Give the backbone structure.
Amino acid sequence: MGEYHKHAASYLCPNGCGNTAKMTADHIGPISLGFAHRPKFNALCNSCNSTKNNRMSLSDVQQLIQDEQAGEQVVSWHSKPIWDALKGLVESNQDAVKLSRLMATNMQQVLPILAEVYEQTGSEYLTRYLRPEYAFQDHRFTGFHPLEPEKLVTITKPLDSKNKQKNAERYVRISFEELERFTSKTNRRVKSSTSDEVEREVTEVVAAVKAGLNEKADSHLLRALTILAEQAKHSW
Ligand SMILES: [Zn+2]
């Protein structure tokens, strides 16, 4: 995203709004909807980007499906069940907006589940889901042009072990700080909106973690996420 920021030239917005402006980065698969951190962007003018506001278009969803078929991990583990349940139903821009809304709601339901597990069992179990090895590489870009992403060359350089350690620690710390912030803000209110069925699975997750049965906890956590995905599909 920094490359867009550094690139000062103005272009005609590819969205057809008629604006000629400095381009901003529209992340294909917004992180706030549960998608993975990937250097995949479309250029949009600032006005179109803020209007779009984390609502995907049909072409965004098609691009994500295509990247996934090519072997990329496009969605985070906690949002994979809902993505897998609904991505095949998207046939129009309107459907893509509906998917965006349901995935945003899903995130609001997943976070209190993770916050509850964290509150009751600490950070050790959940750290296994964080994959800090993703923070072990440094990315550099050459040939950046906002309207020609295909010309971008990404140079990935592994960090030395001291920086690896530092990055991994920072990543884990920030993740749990976010969870704590979320817990203090909204946990009580949102918690009541998930079903008894989900609550039972979460209780099983906590019990399994406390008993040292991480794999059993994993399967109950996946079950909770799958119930949420089924509920979302039901409301489609
Ligand atoms: Zn525009």
In short: Residues 13, 15, 17, 19, 44-45, 47-48 surround zinc ion (CB under 6 Å).
